[in-house]
Amino acid sequence: MNTQALFSQLLIGLINGAFYALLSLGLSVIFGLLNIINFAHGALYMMGAFVAYFLLQWAGLGYWAALVIAPLVVGLLGIVIERSMLRWLYQLDHLYGLLLTFGVALVIEGVFRNEFGSSGLPYTIPSQLVGSYNLGFMFLPTYRGWVVVLSLVICLATWYVIERTKLGSYLRAATENPTLVQAFGVNVPRMVTLTYGFGVALAALAGVLAAPIYQVNPLMGSNLIIVVFAVVVIGGLGSIMGSIVTGFGLGVVEGFTKVFYPEASNTVIFVIMAAVLLVRPAGLFGRAQ
Amino acid sequence: MKLARVLVLVLAAALAAGPAAAQISDGVIKIGVLNDQSSLYADLAGQGSVVAARMAVEDYGAEKKGMKVEIIFADHQNKPDVGSQIARQWYDADKVDVIVDVPNSGVALALNQIARDKGKALLISGAATADLTGKACSPNTIHWTYDTWALANGTGNAIVKTGGDSWFFLTADYAFGHALERDTEAVVTKAGGKVVGKVRHPLNTQDFSSFLLQAQASKAKIIGLANAGGDTTNAIKQGAEFGIVRGGQNFAGLLVFITDVHALGLPTAQGLIMTETFYWDMNDKTRAFAKRFAERDRGIHPTMIHAGVYSAVTHYLKAVEALKGDDGTKVIAKMKETPTDDPLFGKGTIRADGRKIHPAYLFEVKKPGESKGAWDYYKTRATIPAEQAFRPVDQGDCPLVKK
């Protein structure tokens, strides 16, 4: 294996890691504030891609509009889910939230599969991002470069808002002690709702980013969500930076596995998860409770 | 940490389980359609195969002839253990007389043994591995629609002849992919080409970029896709992104269905050549069938697997009627000795090794300008006559064939 090939696999791994990072970031944000393990995340990611497809088919709105509109639409749906279902569960064991969101995911995926089948629908790369750059060691498709840059920007911006701004400090405080924060005049329930909407919007954004790469497919979420949960477990539940770093890192690990032992590329992340749980049960970046 | 433990348990459960839909009933002639109802092969087989089986029963006029036929279906989730469990339940407890379709060669090979042990009938339309009529051939199984040998022989030969003499395989890592890769490699080597590399990816892979880079680095002229369904469409779509074709390499989709072409869209799929044994737009009979089929299956036009299920069930009913009985081993023997005739495949025969014989076709996907609309996708490049389309009966090492 020469260095050129190694570099290109590294880059490919980072690109796939970008999706893991975006999705696990949303999960971490939601878990951090709502204490909900959002199993519907994959289904909402899939919906992001489908909204992009609908916008193109029915409204003639292309990729760039979808990049903004799809997260808003799906985020709104998330808010409805939170208001109508999730908010009754905050006092209960994690298992209930997990079961509810898992059920929601099955319903959403079932409806889409019934309506659109399993082969998926075509969605093309926007004309501005067609083509590739010659990096010397490989031809990088422009679109993939865009995906990695945009995800990195969004991830770091989210981290900055939560860890370094006043709004973020409210969020973190509400995680620790919602009653006290409410006493200071902060509308905690509304903050919780918006946070869920935001986390869901991140998933939808990842869905729009994925649409031109993969088929727009009802199964795209369930194929990804289990891996993303493993990423979250490895990174440590609720840790923002943890999910970003682990997301990109595991993308790279998976990429290299595809070169050296491709048969194991589906399982390598779970092997790592098992190993990490044995050594650090709270995950690499998590705090033991 | 309790939460992590719970999450791991749930993950494990989610990995192991999935939707299962077994319907329990009892009847006289009971047909069980067993296939992928929910995952990457659900459009090319799935509910469409159930629709095709129902249409076959209706068109046969079973009710008028006083035959009571019942059709049930289930999802094997592409897992041999799940498929085997359903098959045992069906054959033993639910009085299912024949299981049809069974895409996914891994599941089909497992069922092949079960049907044989229990003396029941098994009609394979969806699975591809030519081993079903080779070393694993059985007096209880008929392999209906196509197989890996036929695909390799049709597509492989055509490509090597037009100059595609160095190959790199992207292979689905299970029985089907291995068989297809093996049979294609044999054809390529025999025709004077060479295989410069291969990589085996897990079933249902989303991202092929890493594999595509390896294929690119191999400098092979042809990237042979020994996979199917969603794996094939993802590989081709991402191949366009990585400039595979612009870089002078070409894809050989070794098993491509019309539903895959529909999913990719003509701009991406144009120019692909593939071997199939059925296309809906071949003659008036196939067109009429496709029209009725599409009305009942979300507008999807029938794949060759759907057509094969229709044809197989028709012939099965014929044999049962003639025998006035549904003992699995006897029905299969009767089916083998009776020539086949149905609107979709025309006249054909079934060999001693269980291979159904009919012509195969080499199709090319039309350019967007050539297509008159949705589902008008193929033009015929060549017809491979029935006697050349499948592996010669004496070359399969099938113990049922006397040499």
Number of helices of chain A: 11
List how many beta strands of chain A DSSP finds: 2
Number of domains of chain A: 1
> What's the main sheet of chain B like?
5 strands, parallel
From the spread of the alpha carbons, the general shape of chain B counts as: globular
Can you give me a brief rundown of this structure?
Chain A is mainly α and 289 residues long. Chain A has one domain (6-279): ABC transporter involved in vitamin B12 uptake, BtuC (Orthogonal Bundle).
Can you put this structure into words, describing what you see?
The complex is a heterodimer of chains A (289) and B (403). With 289 residues, chain A is mainly alpha-helical. Chain A is built from 11 helices and 2 strands. Chain A has helices at 3-34, 41-59, 63-84, 94-116, 142-164, 166-176, 178-183, 188-210, 220-235, 240-260, 268-279, and strands at residues 132-134, 139-141. A two-stranded antiparallel sheet of chain A has the order 1-2. Chain A is globular and about 60 Å long. Chain B has 403 residues and is α/β, with parallel strands linked by helices. Chain B folds into 2 domains: 20-146 and 282-354, Rossmann fold (3-Layer(aba) Sandwich), CATH 3.40.50.2300; 151-276 and 360-385, 3-Layer(aba) Sandwich (Rossmann fold). Chain B has helices at residues 2-16, 46-60, 80-92, 105-118, 148-161, 175-190, 209-218, 229-241, 258-264, 266-269, 284-296, 304-323, 328-337, 386-389, and strands at 29-35, 69-75, 98-101, 121-124, 141-143, 166-172, 194-201, 222-226, 250-253, 273-276, 340-342, 346-350, 356-357, 360-365, 378-384. In chain B, the strands form 4 sheets. Chain B has a 5-stranded parallel β-sheet with strand order 2-1-3-4-5, sandwiched between helices. A 4-stranded parallel β-sheet of chain B has the order 7-6-8-9, sandwiched between helices. Chain B has a 3-stranded antiparallel β-sheet with strand order 10-14-15. In chain B, helix 2 (46-60) packs parallel to helix 12 (304-323), helix 5 runs parallel beside helix 6 and helix 8 (229-241) packs parallel to helix 9 (258-264). The radius of gyration of chain B is 21 Å and the shape is globular. The model of chain B is unreliable at 17-26 (pLDDT under 50). The chains are: A mainly alpha (289), B alpha/beta (403). The interface between A and B is large, with 59 and 54 residues.
